[in-house]
Known about the structure:
Strand 3 (about 50-55) and strand 4 form a beta hairpin. This protein has an eight-stranded antiparallel barrel with strand order 1-2-3-4-5-6-7-8. The protein is built from one helix and eight strands, in the order αββββββββ. The longest helix has 26 residues, at about 5-30. It is α+β, with helices and mostly antiparallel strands. The protein has a single domain (about 5-125), classed as Lipocalin, CATH 2.40.128.
Amino acid sequence: xxxxxxxSFVLCILAFTSFTPAVASAQGSQIVGKWSEVNGQDKIxxxxxxxxxxxMTYAGNSSRRGLFGKYFIDEDKISVNLKGFVSPGxxxxxxxxxxxxxxxxxxxxxxxxxxVKYDGSMARFERSK
Length: 129
């Protein structure tokens, strides 16, 4: 019986790693766009170059604030690195959201809401124009 060559092994690894970004990129392309909260006032925008902007209601005191930063998708989670939410130039802890698409809606659960949302709270967003 012939043993597989190192060349075959390397090709197999390259094929696997090439598939993984395609999955993340497919999820990323679904989330790109403008979203409005269905039963609330939050608005968020995910751009194709990994940037995030929005207006969100601060869970602690119900004030609305604009925020921006970069987002990263890892399977069914989004990590958002916010900038200038509390005060300009002060780095914010990242916000982590679990997300899924259901019935045309973007449904998020705030796993680590940072300074913005209560952990475990949920929101449903629809595409906006």
